[in-house]
Amino acid sequence: MRSILAASFLIFLQIIRGERGLTRDPEFISGIRNVSVAVGRDASLSCHISNNQGYKVAWIRIDTQTILTLNNHVITKNHRIDVSQPEDTEWKLDIKDVRPRDAGFYMCQVNTEPMKSKLGYLEVVEPPSIQDGLTSRDQIVSEGDNIVLACKATGHPTPQIRWRREDGKHIRGNIDKEYIGPIISLVSVSKEDMGAYLCIAQNGVPPAVSRRTILQVKYPPTVLLTPGPAAGVTGGALVLTCAASGFPEPVTSWVHNNRAIPSGGRFEIVTEVQDGQVITRLVIDPLTSHDAFSRYTCIGKNNLGSAEDSITLNITEARGNDDVKKVRVENEIIYKNPRLEIWEINDLPNPSYPNQENKGKAGGRGAGGKGELFTRRRNNGVTEPNQDLFSRASTDFEFKATFLIVVLKMLFNFLNPEI
To answer: pTM to 2 decimals?
Structure first.
């Protein structure tokens, strides 16, 4: 009896297989390869099944238990889903314009008894994106304040956050130039902490992104006259350079012996900003004897205070470029301009001494003396003949006549030494 039932069951299976036209059950040729794709790209998952004639092949999304396709028909209403059969043994699920929510497990299933299936995973990678609401903006703080700089980014895989200073300096309290982590805490900030901080987020999916946060620390000015020459000669030029730093940006000025210096005349003031410092230059041209041992001061001010730095100049008289050039004529006459000054005979006084030392003396041989300086000075500094031997030489003609008489007198004395 049992043998008859077994034979009947075998005959039934053969009838079923004959109706499907099969000699063997479908088999998966290989597993489904996992796929990783960036957001916005297209993705495809493929399963390969042998002996699939007469059977139904479906694609199902596991997390939602949604049937997407059945054989060559799309069941879901998602217009980005499609199915194709490039070969008799290949069933291909296509997803266009992949989005982060498309990530997950997908099942390729054939309706055998029992059901056969294979799973494949779709990974959707997303480049990092910095979240504005959770990332620090530019900050202005006072010296001694405690601050926190935060940076938050999304993406898949989870982005790594790195901080570094834009000027290449080390972040305080960190050995390396880069700090890894979403938050920087700075206790009792100082002006050395000022600058631009870069938050960089990356997760291996290009492009990496960054956000620039500027930290400004309010502090009173500091002023420094940069090293340079503080000496010169009269008639020359000299440039004094001063660097002022502070926040808010200081206003600079120059003072000479406690008097403000305006730009103009022999002074020129040039100001520019370099690397967060106010650089101001004072050009003095020309230098005069009044600049000798005088004090020049650079001042910087902001609403938190002021600072200054001073320098004393060492000015010497120019040599080899005298204001008055004198010519000596054979031990007898030395003159510059006939309208300005005349000396006669031997004992010529030193021109550097005041003319008052020779006032009232007899003038040369013709006037009863030797070495007399016949000059005087007006208030405006112009030298002209004194009221003596040449007092009547008010014009060029009169002077030339008087000068000729003097020359003839000298010639006469030379030819007649005994007289």
So the answer is: 0.60
